[in-house]
Amino acid sequence: MAADGRVSRLRRMLALWGLYARMDVLWIARGLKASATFYFGDLLLGLSGVTWSFLLAQRFGGIGEWSPHQIVFMLGLALVVRGSLEIGFSLNVAFPSRRIGRGQLDHMLLMPQPLWMTIATDGFCPASGSGQLLAGSAVMAWALRALGLPIGAGWLALLVLHVASAAVIMLSFAYLWASLAFVAPRAAEEINSSTMRMLEQLKPFPLDGVGFGLTLGLMSVVPAGFLAWLPSRVLLGLEPSPSAWLWTPLAALGFAALATGVFRAGLGRYARTGSTRYLSHGFRR
For residues 146 and 76, is the Cβ–Cβ distance under 8 A? Predict the structure, then answer.
């Protein structure tokens, strides 16, 4: 019976992903002008957050022990991680404070399926969300060719593992902070905009030489180091520790567990208080 339930849930998720993918493709395929404008704008948005690091590397011939091409690889990896999040969790799923603060969580809870399944499928946008992923993949490919790094099946599997782990860390960080919206929906409605901006501004910078205290902070309180710097050190062979390939996946598990616990506690409070959006004294009436 348990196996039948798992198969049924998997079929349901695949059906939902297929449905959202078809709607997304239809939306992006409205016309060449609209799709080209959308992808170009998405590309500029992604590159604007990492260009400064590339320019510094070009001006000074690298940053610390990182060569310009290694910096370019890290910037491409940062774009791929953000692009993966855009594909799987668009439409404010990666900005849950907005849905909680605006009372839209009720819409998700009313759907005839578990909340986790709605979160996992509701923001699937493989067409409109692929701009930064494609751009980042191209940047990484160019850097790898210049570096002459040997690429095999094992290395590609390690890349996928680190991209997925970094995306989980970004999403977990968003849901940790979004839980404040259960307590203060009006004040915390846009808190995920600030948390995401903070990660975006910090992730494309190598942390070598910044000091133990600051490195620890950027790997825990603000886990920007797990999004591009540490994965790049592992993938480029700069990290000497043989167990380094496990650090980012283990951090992803830890952040996911913490975010799940905190978010569930917030949901428990929400079950008692509900949303004020639709009340006569609600702040959005």
Answer: no
Report the alpha-carbon distance of residue 245 to residue 237 in Å, rounded.
Answer: 10
- Say how many CA atoms lie within 13 Å of 272 toward its Cβ: 7
Identify the segments of the chain with pLDDT beneath 70. Answer: 1-2, 49-50, 52-53, 57, 277-285
Per the listing, tokens 């929400």 go with: 270
The predicted-structure confidence for 155-168, as pLDDT tens digits, reads as follows 999 999 999 999 99
Q: For the chain, what are the domain ranges?
A: 2-273
Centre a 10 Å sphere on the Cβ of residue 25 and count the other Cβ atoms it contains: 13
pTM of this prediction? 0.91
* Cβ proximity of 69 and 146 under 8 Å: yes
Look up residue 63 and give its DSSP letter: B
Burial (CB count <10 Å: 0-12, 13-18, 19+), residue 145 = exposed
**Contact status, residue 229 vs residue 71, Cβ threshold 8 Å:** no
